[in-house]
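User: For this week's homework, look closely at the record that follows, marking any run of repeated tokens, and judge whether sequence predicts the tokens.
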Amino acid sequence: MTQTHTEHYEREDGRAIELTYAEPENVVRGGLVVLHEAEGITPGVRLLIASLAGEGWLAVAPHLKGEPAREDVLAATDITLAWLVDHGVQADLLGVVGFDLGGTAALVVASNRKLGAAVSVGGQGGSELPALVEIAGKLTSPWLGIYGDAGDELGAAEVEQLRDAAATAGVVSNVVRYPGANHRFDADPKAAVEAWQRTLSWFDAHLR
């Protein structure tokens, strides 16, 4: 398994952040900003970063504290994107992916920045982040949303509202719902495998 590393990254303008990343062993296909869950950089997040690197992506997660506000998410993402560019990734090969709270954060980024592709796996609007339907209609990046409906996930009606809102944005989007799965699809291994393949296929299609 590809190793993950953590470093302190500081820009010339003084902006700085802690980053955890993993590099592909061979050719770098592009760069992905990974927005983590509320628990921070967990072993599961490190595994995700390493798995993406194993697929050829330079994957890097900014360390976000608690439930960040919209401005904090965008600021952290901007610095992380600059890190990827510093590491030789071309602008049209940049994407973002997030899980749970990070899924909502990824949708925020996809609605405020023009990237090659974005994927959200789970997530709802929290106290510091806007409701999903409010921002889906403002998408500026190709976006894939993957949701389960177990636990606190979105129900079928909410997913359809989200799909309809995203469709008005004028960029490519797709929204998929897995009945009975949670945001990491732990309750349904088959759904987890398919969701992972959908994620990889989305980046394959749009970052090339």
Q: What stands out?
A: The two ends are 25 Å apart (CA to CA). Residues 93 and 208 are 7 Å apart (CA to CA).
